[in-house]
Design goal:
By secondary structure, this protein is an alpha+beta fold. The protein is globular and about 50 Å long. The mean pLDDT is 91.
Length: 117
């Protein structure tokens, strides 16, 4: 499926992920300075929802604070719809990358690993 290729590309090129905003169990972010996304995880389940916002109706901050979705353009991809092991792992890994970035885990790990070389 093409969406898994897209997710895997974002994972491989995670330096292109920016402007991450956490709202409960959902992370809003921009990929490659132009594509607006969010990924949400259901409570205590291994189900993820990835949303693409293909228009310029709202910026990423406005999207993260918006409570009314009716009338806005977005596309949703669900790990439940994919139902492959690779697909679920890709959703999980992207979600974890965003969580780590928000918490500054990347910076902490890089700081520790720089002493290794």
């Amino acid at each position: 499926m093409k969406i898994i290729q897209v997710i895997n590309t974002m994972i491989t090129n995670q330096s292109k992920i920016s402007d991450i905003i956490r709202k409960n169990r959902e992370y809003f972010f921009i990929y490659d300075k132009k594509h607006k996304w969010s990924i949400a995880k259901l409570d205590d389940e291994e189900e993820y929802f990835l949303h693409l916002y293909p228009t310029d109706e709202l910026d990423i901050k406005q999207l993260s604070t918006n409570m009314e979705w009716e009338g806005f353009t977005y596309v949703t991809y669900s790990s439940e719809d994919i139902k492959t092991k690779e697909g679920i792992e890709s959703f999980r890994e992207l979600y974890q990358i965003l969580s780590d970035k928000v918490l500054g885990i990347d910076d902490i790990f890089n700081d520790i690993l720089k002493d290794e070389f």
